[in-house]
Specification:
Blueprint (H helix, E strand, L loop, with lengths): L1 E2 L19 H11 L1 H4 L6 H16 L4 E2 L2 H11 L4 H12 L2
Antiparallel strand pairs: 1-2
Helix pairs in contact: 1-3, 4-5
């Protein structure tokens, strides 16, 4: 699937408040930090490598990028640590809503 994370987060009014915070920056930072992996009892080193690689790909992307199902699932899992508004925007972006 193709996803463009170079989009601004919107507030509850649907506005980006003039100084947009880009989804790619937040998702990249989440994946890079790995904080969401610490909550998993069975996190594997390979997941950390995948999270880092995905973080760098998202951060460097300036347009649409290709994601496989495993990568999309990882992003959704990491995005669960965002507030509800941020989480839903990331999920909708991945799911093309």
């Amino acid at each position: 699937m193709k996803v463009n994370f170079n989009q601004p987060f919107k507030n509850y009014k649907g506005e980006d408040n003039g100084a947009p915070q880009l989804i790619k920056n937040v998702v990249s930072a989440l994946l890079f930090s790995g904080k969401w992996l610490e909550k998993k009892a069975n996190a594997k080193p390979e997941e950390k490598v995948m999270a880092y690689d995905l973080s760098m790909r998202i951060y460097k992307a300036t347009d649409e990028m290709e994601l496989n199902i495993e990568e999309a699932a990882m992003i959704k899992e990491a995005a669960a640590f965002l507030n509800p508004g941020g989480y839903v925007q990331v999920i909708n972006l991945i799911e093309g809503k």
